[in-house]
């Protein structure tokens, strides 16, 4: 499902854009959840709690224009795809400063919007698997292959990356445990640790060593199932 936000101070253009997105959703059989806003303040406030995958953003709005809103949004979210809506192409150059995906000239046509959304869909489909983490400074994308393990620390979770960096999420451990429990590459080897199996270098019955050299305990009750999960994944990747 795509989470899409549309921000435009014109009720007519807001309605037209929303109807076009719903039409694209039905034609492509891609579920969408659309949130609409009439000003940048409302959009930013909502995005802090429920970040959108794609944002259609009118540039020319009273008091707080779309370009200003995009610059603020980019301080905490580098990954949302921004598509500007504008009646003039003069903002095309400035749109690159906030890494906009594209811009649509008003009045927008369905064919043009369809093409832009198709491009977004292709990018999403070709993108490696990832998590979107809520951190104290905003949202951050982590690709699975970058993660060595996640560790519960009080009410927060620290992700250790293969680069040696750490990223702290304000979400609780059980949130990620639930989200990743069905993924064959992640395994809960201890009450406080989730590991990404492809980045395990070697292990025994009581502990494992990640590729960067971090030692992680394996709880006795998880030892057998960890071994089974590890070799099942390695066998799958080999063949």
UniProtKB/TrEMBL annotation:
| A Pfam match | LytTR
Q: Which keywords, in A-to-Z order, does the entry hold?
A: DNA-binding, Phosphoprotein
Identify the residues that the record assigns to the HTH LytTR-type domain, covering every copy.
131-232
Spell out the SUPFAM superfamilies in the cross-references.
CheY-like
Q: Which Gene3D superfamilies match?
A: 3.40.50.2300, LytTr DNA-binding domain (2.40.50.1020)
List residues, modification 4-aspartylphosphate: 58
* Name by which UniProt lists this protein: Stage 0 sporulation protein A homolog
Whose protein is this, by species? Mediterraneibacter butyricigenes
């Amino acid at each position: 499902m795509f989470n899409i936000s549309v921000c435009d101070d014109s009720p007519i253009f807001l309605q037209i854009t929303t109807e076009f997105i719903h039409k694209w959703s039905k034609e492509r059989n891609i579920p969408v959840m659309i949130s609409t806003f009439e000003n940048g303040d409302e959009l930013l406030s909502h995005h802090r709690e429920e970040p959108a995958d794609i944002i259609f953003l009118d540039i020319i709005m009273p008091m707080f224009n779309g370009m200003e809103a995009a610059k603020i949004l980019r301080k905490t979210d580098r990954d949302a795809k921004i598509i500007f809506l504008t009646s003039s192409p003069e903002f095309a150059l400035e749109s690159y400063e906030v890494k906009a995906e594209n811009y649509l000239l008003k009045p927008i046509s369905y064919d043009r919007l369809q093409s832009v959304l198709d491009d977004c869909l292709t990018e999403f489909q070709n993108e490696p698997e990832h998590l979107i983490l809520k951190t104290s400074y905003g949202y951050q994308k982590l690709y699975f292959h970058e993660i060595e393990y996640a560790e519960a620390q009080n009410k927060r979770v620290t992700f250790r990356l293969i680069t040696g960096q750490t990223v702290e999420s304000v979400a609780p451990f059980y949130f990620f445990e639930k989200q990743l429990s069905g993924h064959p590459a992640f395994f809960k080897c201890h009450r406080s640790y989730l590991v990404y199996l492809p980045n395990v270098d070697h292990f025994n019955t009581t502990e494992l060593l990640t590729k960067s050299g971090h030692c992680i305990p394996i709880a006795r009750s998880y030892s057998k199932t960890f071994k089974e999960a590890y070799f099942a994944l390695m066998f799958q990747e080999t063949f």
